[in-house]
Amino acid sequence: MSTVIEPERVAERAREILETWQADEEFERLRTGCAMYSNDWDDFYGYPIIVDYDAIKDAPDLFTETTRVMALKSAVYEMTDEDEKAAELPVPVAIDTMSHALCAQFTLLSRVQDRTGIKFVHMTDMEAGDQGGTWDWGDFTHQCYRAAFGPVNIRFWVGKDETERRRQVLDGLYAGIGVTERGRKISIDFASV
Hints:
Elements: H1 7-23, H2 27-36, H3 59-79, H4 84-87, H5 93-103, H6 106-116, H7 140-149, H8 160-175, E1 179-180, E2 185-186
Helix pairs in contact: 1-3, 1-7, 3-5
């Protein structure tokens, strides 16, 4: 990050941002829209690293974690004069995946941004690492989150080493059905099945 920012300052602004978003007249619609996104989202390496993942039951808690992270990213964005790279904080892969569901509510997000004057920040081309999962215990994101919201939900906050270990397990399982390169290549002979 080019500008040094204290986690406590980010935390303070992130709490204000989240409260502003939550007070918006369409915030609940945003929540329910993200929960419905489970029907349309295929994901091989984000949500499946969560033990006993359930798209319906986990959606509310994942939404909470994701909006908190988005508030942190928006706070950093504001504090760094709109530096997208600095604002693209490393986050756990499952939360990053839910942020895609959030961003898919584009029209609704646009209205919330217009009413609140706060940008939602998510730039895939600025993410570090391969398919996210670069967050780790004690890093800047973790420090900011703890200062703003308390302890992380360890069900969804899987550190980078454990994320990679779980992805390697998934690599082995998926290869047996023709899904390779972390879900980027699928070769299934549907005619013979």
